Each structure stands twice: as structure tokens, then as C-alpha cells.
Amino acid sequence: MDCLLSENPGSTSEDDRGVDEADSSELAPRSASDAFEAGDAERAVDDDFAFNDLVYVTIPSDPPPGAKLADDRDGWTQCLLRHPALATILSTPGFPRRPHYPPDVCFCIGPSKHGLGMFATRDLSMGDHILTERPLTVTPTTIPMPKFARCLEGLTDEQRRQAILDRWEKAFLLPCFNRLDSAAQADFLDLANSHAEDGSGPILGVIRTNGFEVAGVVDPGPDGEYAAVCRIMCRINHSCSPSADRLFDIASFSFQLRATRDVKQGEEIFVSYCNVLETAADRQEYLASYGIKCTCNSCLPDTTASDQRRLDLRRSIDAIDNDYDTWLADPLLADDYTIKISLRWISVIQQEALEASDAYRHHLHAIVKAYVALGDAENAVKYGRLLGLWALGQSGKEDMLRKMENPGYHRGRPDWGIRVCAEDEGLGEI
Ligand SMILES: C[S@@+](CC[C@H](N)C(=O)[O-])C[C@H]1O[C@@H](n2cnc3c(N)ncnc32)[C@H](O)[C@@H]1O
């Protein structure tokens, strides 16, 4: 999914620089399993915690004694966090806010081509709010244990990898998992696990299969990201032409799922676990680490045409500003010069079902900007509305949509009518 757990031995050895030799010789194991059995290893856990500044915390707050997660609509999340991420959460304006829920239940979870999946139970429109959910757990995506890494000198790469995975599972993830009540633990372990055979423990396996990025909750440095596991949202399968997107709101500590294009009743709802504008081969390479061999339309051979469209789409974004400036500077170019270019790209986006991608936003914006320059409020509102719905799907906020639906907003922009003015001065008739 969005985030991939990596043991990151590079960063552990780099972090080791501050560890004195006595630590490493005391803790040096004779085999991988020794690392867990030796009493010294227990002390290393404390050292690791101190060094890495990791804390177990329930967000937004500890539930009352005996409270069951399943009985509470808002729920709470068991987190393993470093202090910078925790500080970000606690200082977010509005935190802790109640999650904002959709008006109705418009999906069900059921059998799909890829195990379980999510299906629309009514027609959905772009921007529709499908689900809000607080995660069961939030944990770091990389394994930070510099002192422990010192214990592993002399082991083979495979032994070292296995020792690190075991240690992360038992000493770090298990205490977080144990803070869930028994029904929530069962729900967690019931999620898909495509890492059951690769040495990951059961908790790590579920996180690696299901964990997705918690936008905005991050520590400084390259390995500062976190992975969230949700009971329902993790049932959504991947497509390279997705129909929904997740967004994370720190203040309510919840994910929202929104439709990124229209979806028919009964259709499966997909999100993308990878960058959809990459080529099929690059996407497949990325998805392989999640045990996925994608068979969506754009991944089925021959992928040449789809790859080329996606590559051209990426490039088209870079050309937008230049095309606009050229058009403004050249009154001989047709009024709809940039509009036609972006409409062509939008038909490519629709052909590839990439409405969730950034390319859609860029081209909708280019069209609105051109209509504003032409002083055409009706069309600025028409395409602005789509742009507002796109933003709603990505942010859960309606402010952009409200602005774009208001002709007065477009008329009040400094670039309103600037292309018309050029024509009024006679330049358009040259
Ligand atoms: C987050 S889970 C999605 C829900 C899962 N299908 C279930 O039954 O719980 C991710 C797993 O679903 C499967 N999966 C998701 N999307 C897929 C796809 N496009 N093609 C093949 N398998 C997919 C893979 O087994 C993957 O490891």
C-alpha cells in the first residue's frame, strides 16, 4: 500500500555511531535467537526506547476502563509514536475533534476477485463521502533499533534480517497490539496477510499488507513515516485506475474515504496503493512487495499504449503554464487554445480512469483559469465545480467547491477578463 515497511539496516548502523563498545560486546549474541533470550537483550529494549524516544499512547485519549472499541462509534487508536509525531498531533488546531461521518452507509464489504473488497450499495458521485474511520493502530514504517543492531554482528544477512523482524514484532509491535481489546485484536488478525511466509510475525505481516500512510503524522528525517491499520478501510483493494481516495484528518485522527469519480451501484470501489502515473512495469515492481500482481485493464498486456498515455499525461502537467503564457501573449491564438489542450488531456484521463490523479486537478485548473481570463463566468463555474469536487475528494473540505461555484469569486479574480481586454484593444482582430 502507500507505505512499505523497511528494516532499513543502513540507518541502524549509521545511528550506531553513538553507541560505546561495552554495549555491543555485552549484548553480542551467539545466534539470532540468543538475541531475544539473553537477559541483556531485555535491557537493550529499554535502551532502544530511550534512544528512539518511542511511546505507546492511545489517541485521542485512554478509553474508560472496560470500554470496548466496537461499542464506540468514534473509537480510538493504539499508537507507537516518537515524540515529534506525538507533538504534531497534540498541537494540531482542533485536536481532539470528533470525526465527521457520511450521511448514509453506501458500501458493503464482500467477496471480490482479490479476497474481500468494498462495493458501492448505491450510485456514487465524484466527491461523495463513503466512510470515516479511526485506525486500530498507528506504528512506524521503519524499524529503529540502533543498539539492538549491534547485537547482530557476526550473523548472516538472513539471520540478521530475521532477528530484526522478530525483535520488532515481539518487543515493539506486540505491546501496542496488546493494548487493543480482544475483539479488536481478532479484527486486526483477521485482516489479509500476504507476508505470512516471509519471516514477518503475524502483527507485522498485517501491517505490511494493510498499513497505509498517515499523512501529516511524520517525524523529521527520511524514515519518519507511520502506517495505519483500519478495520474496514483495509478491505479496499488496489486498482491502477482507482475510484476512491483516502485522506487523513489529524484533528479528528480519522481517515475519510471519498469517491474520486462516479461509481455505479454494485461496482467494486478501489483505491490505488501506488503512483498511478508510473508505467505498468514500475507499478508492478512496487506492488509485488505487497504480494499483488495487478490485473487491472491498464496492467494487462499490451501496456504500451496505456504507459505512453500516462507518461504523456505526466509531461502535460509541466507544459500547462507555458501554454497559458504563450496564449496570453499571442492574440492570434484561438480563444479556446489552452482549453482545447486541457480538454484533450481530460479525455485521456477519463480513458485511463485517472480522475484521482493530480493531472486531473492541473487540467481542470488550467481550464478554469482560461475561462477566467476570457471573462466567462458560466464556464469558469462549470469546470470550477469539478475542480471543487476533486478537492473535496482529496481534502474532505468544501471551501474550494463553494468558492468555485460562486460566479462572483471568478469575477473578483485579478486575472478576470485579461484576455478579453487584449481583444478590446484591437489586438484580437489583427
Ligand atoms: C489491504 S488488503 C485488501 C483487502 C483484501 N482483499 C482482504 O481480503 O482483506 C491487500 C491485499 O489484497 C489483495 N489485493 C488487493 N488488491 C489487489 C489487486 N489489484 N490484485 C491482486 N490482489 C490484490 C492482495 O492480497 C493484497 O495483499
TrEMBL record:
<dbReference type="InterPro" id="IPR001214">
    <property type="entry name" value="SET_dom"/>
</dbReference>
<feature type="domain" description="SET">
    <location>
        <begin position="103"/>
        <end position="274"/>
    </location>
</feature>
<protein>
    <recommendedName>
        <fullName>SET domain-containing protein</fullName>
    </recommendedName>
</protein>
<dbReference type="InterPro" id="IPR046341">
    <property type="entry name" value="SET_dom_sf"/>
</dbReference>
<feature type="region of interest" description="Disordered">
    <location>
        <begin position="1"/>
        <end position="40"/>
    </location>
</feature>
<dbReference type="InterPro" id="IPR053185">
    <property type="entry name" value="SET_domain_protein"/>
</dbReference>
<dbReference type="Pfam" id="PF00856">
    <property type="entry name" value="SET"/>
</dbReference>
